[in-house]
């Protein structure tokens, strides 16, 4: 059984500070942001996946939510902002809407993190679902307002359901990344 | 710079609200200056276009392979069907050849003015940029091809859409199914003019058709020469009633799976000549209207004549 507690600090033993160590550490810390970055990029390519358009917000929102709740240090607000701009540039919807949604999800997760980080997984799932319903409703309202007519409602429902359904997978991915990518610098 | 902990905490709390405000600003900016946002997106798409075509290539190969395998499976039935179809087509070929001859003779007798052959370029669709609220595709083009805004996109079977933005290496084609697409069309059998309006569904609606001359189920829909840059008679699809009183167009082009597009440039195919007797008024700048040159009083005439 592997023990994840940090090694005791004794005089004479210092953390490694070489260039390689720093690069390694940096890449590991940037893993969640890099995942969002590349997920956005790959899902904007012509893969012809069914539901590809709705999958992108689902994955991005779930990832931002999870990391903002548990490890906000690796998903800072500025990074969410930059990733939101990136997602907006790659999608052809109204500008800024995706950005605003990501920031709101991040903000909700950040403000409730002391409660959310302690609750049962299923409660967390439910909370995420409620947040997604709210955010997608906001997206629909904004899209309708910016297009000056009522846009179709069903794709947004599909987007909510898809993000709700992909949450457990993202959670498993998050746990794995947190244990074996972010916190495993000593074994490299 | 040494900053007190309280100050730093206060700053940290302000970051997120500030960013949300900036996001609202971005939404407003996107609404106010669409051109800027579109240019940014087109530049990104231009940069990524080679990568997208890399993704598209194995897909095309795979589709080709699976199509081949399916073809092999029902080769026998296909052969029988093709033989029958070939016979019927041969008959129609004779009819068409005879009609083309007759048409040529008649046109020669009538001193028919031949239509201008439009120029066109063909390109591969590298990305479907359809979102929740738009239907559009991105086309890879060369820097030296003359694709212009307003170009008409057709695939092998019919009208696909119009070019709305042109970048250096890619062009965006708004499909006829997009909710902002409105095209004047003619219904071929009932000779009625109507507007084909996309609504983001695969079947664009027919609106503004004359109430005493309703569209007939199954009749062909072609473009109408009402607007410049879109000539009359391009095939669009056929009429279908999804329910009584709601006619839609079933597009002839395979819009769910656009692969290769031809972009036609009809921009100045029919330019109206200057009408004599009609005075072209300059746009009223500064609220004053000036007379055209030939009506302007000459200053020296007034002095010496």
From TrEMBL, chain A:
Top-rank taxon, per record: Bacteria
Protein name: Rod shape-determining protein
Lineage: Bacteria, Pseudomonadati, Pseudomonadota, Alphaproteobacteria, Acetobacterales
Automatic annotation (TrEMBL), chain B:
InterPro entries noted in UniProt: Cell/Rod_1, Cell/Rod_MreC_2, MreC, MreC_beta-barrel_core
Keyword entries, A-Z: Cell shape
Annotated ranges, domain Rod shape-determining protein MreC beta-barrel core: 126-257
One example of a Gene Ontology biological process annotation: regulation of cell shape
Region described as Disordered: 273-305
Bias kind Pro residues: ranges: 273-285
GO CC terms, sorted: plasma membrane
Function: Involved in formation and maintenance of cell shape.
Family: Belongs to the MreC family.
The protein's name in its UniProt record: Cell shape-determining protein MreC
Organism of derivation: Komagataeibacter rhaeticus
């Amino acid at each position: 059984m592997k023990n994840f507690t940090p090694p005791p600090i004794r005089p004479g033993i210092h953390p490694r500070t070489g260039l390689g160590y720093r690069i390694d550490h940096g890449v590991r810390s940037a893993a969640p942001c890099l995942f969002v970055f590349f997920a956005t990029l790959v899902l904007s390519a012509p893969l012809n996946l069914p539901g590809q358009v709705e999958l992108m917000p689902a994955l991005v929102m779930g990832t931002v939510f999870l990391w903002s709740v548990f490890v906000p240090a690796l998903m800072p607000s500025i990074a969410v902002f930059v990733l939101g701009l990136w997602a907006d540039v790659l999608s052809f919807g109204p500008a800024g809407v995706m950005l605003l949604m990501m920031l709101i999800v991040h903000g909700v997760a950040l403000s409730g993190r002391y409660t959310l980080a302690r609750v049962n997984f299923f409660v967390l799932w439910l909370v995420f679902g409620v947040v997604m319903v709210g955010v997608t409703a906001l997206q629909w309202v904004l899209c309708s307002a910016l297009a000056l007519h009522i846009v179709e409602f069903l794709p947004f429902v599909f987007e909510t359901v898809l993000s709700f359904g992909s949450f457990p997978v993202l959670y498993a991915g998050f746990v794995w990344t947190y244990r074996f990518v972010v916190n495993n610098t000593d074994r490299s | 710079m040494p900053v007190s902990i309280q100050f730093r905490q206060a700053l940290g709390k302000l970051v997120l609200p500030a960013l949300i405000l900036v996001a609202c600003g971005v939404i407003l900016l996107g609404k106010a200056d669409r051109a800027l946002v579109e240019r940014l997106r087109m530049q990104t798409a231009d940069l990524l276009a080679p990568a997208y075509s890399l993704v598209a290539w194995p897909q095309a190969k795979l589709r080709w392979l699976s199509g081949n395998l399916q073809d092999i499976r029902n080769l026998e039935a296909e052969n029988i069907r093709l033989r029958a179809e070939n016979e019927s087509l041969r008959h129609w070929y004779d009819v068409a050849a005879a009609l083309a001859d007759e048409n040529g003779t008649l046109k020669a007798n009538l001193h028919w003015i031949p239509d201008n052959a439009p120029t066109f370029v063909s390109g591969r669709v590298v990305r479907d940029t359809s979102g929740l609220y738009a239907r559009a595709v991105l086309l890879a083009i060369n820097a030296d091809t003359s694709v212009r805004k307003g170009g008409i996109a057709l695939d092998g079977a019919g009208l696909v859409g119009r070019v709305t933005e042109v970048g250096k290496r890619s062009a965006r084609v708004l499909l006829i199914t997009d909710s902002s697409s409105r095209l004047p069309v003619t219904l071929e059998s009932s000779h009625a003019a109507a507007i084909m309006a996309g609504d983001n569904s695969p079947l664009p609606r027919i609106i503004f058709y004359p109430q005493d001359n309703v569209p007939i189920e199954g009749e062909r829909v072609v473009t109408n020469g009402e607007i410049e840059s879109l000539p009359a008679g391009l095939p669009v699809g056929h009429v279908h009633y999804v329910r009584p009183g709601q006619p839609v167009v079933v597009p002839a082009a395979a819009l769910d799976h656009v692969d290769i597009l031809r972009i036609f440039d009809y921009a100045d195919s029919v330019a109206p000549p200057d009408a004599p007797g009609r005075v072209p008024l300059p746009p009223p700048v500064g609220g004053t209207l000036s007379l055209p040159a030939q009506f302007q009083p000459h200053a020296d005439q007034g002095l010496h004549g």
